[in-house]
Design brief:
alpha/beta, 55% helix
């Protein structure tokens, strides 16, 4: 809704720039006397159908739900693919119009494909720079000691034999550290499960209790399967709880940047704490790129 547009949300600004660019291109194209309106009609129809299909995919339960890839449920990945296809067509449409406006005739198809790649590259580069330069000196990273704070551990991968991955165990270790240091009095473990394995929250629970954490201060939820679902769970069950002073979300350093963007989008006031972990340079770059793409998708489509 236009009434919900905010200059404080980067995703709103990105979408405004993308759509404004398309509108200007369409207006200039239609003003040309020799312009044929048929391409505009065709592209608009394809865009509309793609967007409608993408939206419907978020409302129905897709068969790929039980399939996991890159630690993500298949239905969430399909949603992302549909919306990314919509964005690709949108960029292609915009490039086509601008090249036609400048009466470019040679190698038009190659120029369009190149410009689409450049546009994606520009937006993803901006997202990547945002991710790696975002300072942790903001108020969300400054914690105050209180037994009424709750540390919420976001789920991560479970390895074979229902063992926590280093990412998951590192997050639980950080939550334990917060409790031992007096920054939190309770721990909430989140995350569902892929077929054939225990839920991420259950594996995290067994890891925490085996490391001396009092089971009475640990709770679980095992229905959420994505970051946005976990953030919505926090909003529905914790943010307005009068017995909780602050919610401290625990996850990896780069993942928390996206968490903060999601929370700001939903007007949620939370604190964050990054888990510790030494990553090799190739894994570090992989996680940075993965989070950059995930953040860009969230900015564009709130997925």
């Amino acid at each position: 809704m236009l009434s919900d547009f905010s200059y404080g949300n980067i995703g709103n600004i990105l979408n405004f720039v993308i759509v404004f660019n398309l509108i200007i291109a369409v207006i200039l194209y239609l003003k040309r006397k020799l312009s044929v309106k048929k391409p505009v009609i065709i592209f608009t129809f394809i865009l509309t159908v793609t967007l409608v299909v993408s939206y419907i995919s978020t409302l129905i339960e897709l068969p790929a739900k039980e399939t996991y890839y890159l630690n993500q449920p298949g239905d969430k990945l399909l949603d992302t693919v549909f919306f990314s296809l919509y964005l690709f067509i949108l960029f292609t449409f915009t490039s086509y119009l601008w090249f036609k406006n400048f009466e470019s005739k040679r190698f038009v198809l190659l120029k369009i494909l190149f410009s689409v790649v450049v546009m994606f590259g520009i937006f993803l580069s901006f997202t990547y720079l945002f991710l790696i330069t975002r300072s942790n000196s903001s108020d969300e990273w400054n914690l105050k000691k209180s037994n009424n704070n709750i540390a919420v551990v976001l789920g991560s991968a479970v390895w074979s034999d229902n063992q926590p991955s280093p990412s998951l165990s590192g997050r639980v270790d950080k939550a334990i550290e917060l409790v031992d240091s007096g920054y939190a009095g309770k721990i909430l473990l989140t995350g569902g499960n892929a077929p054939g394995e225990m839920s991420e929250s259950q594996v995290a629970y067994e890891y925490a209790t085996s490391n001396g954490v009092n089971p009475k201060i640990v709770s679980q939820e095992s229905l959420t399967t994505s970051t946005i679902e976990q953030i919505n769970y926090i909003k529905s069950n914790l943010i307005y709880d009068k017995d909780i002073d602050e919610v401290i979300v625990v996850s990896g350093q780069y993942h928390l940047i996206r968490v903060l963007e999601i929370c700001h989008f939903y007007n949620m006031d939370i604190k964050v704490a990054a888990s510790k972990g030494n990553m090799e340079d190739d894994k570090k770059l992989y996680r940075q790129l993965r989070e950059s793409i995930a953040l860009f998708v969230f900015w564009c489509f709130a997925l």
